[in-house]
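INFO  loader      accepted 1 record
INFO  loader      residues=85
INFO  predictor   begin
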Amino acid sequence: MSKSLAVMNVIAWSGFWVFGYLAFTGDVSRPEEMTTAALVAAFGGLLGIWTFFRLVRDAETSGYAKSRNRADRSHLEKEYNEETA
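INFO  predictor   done
INFO  writer      dumping tokens
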């Protein structure tokens, strides 16, 4: 699963950069080409971000990467319950 996500991530970011370049450097007299390139670039960027976050999640669950630092908030619930009682 991680390898297919990694391949999809590379392809998505490649599409983002290629079509983003085409959207910015396209001929102004043909706005439909620029719009199409911009939409494909946006889709590639969104897919690249999504696959990146999935890869990060998979790396954390597999133990390959260190888990995120999270605060222990259990004391807040205890304090809230004592104040409302």
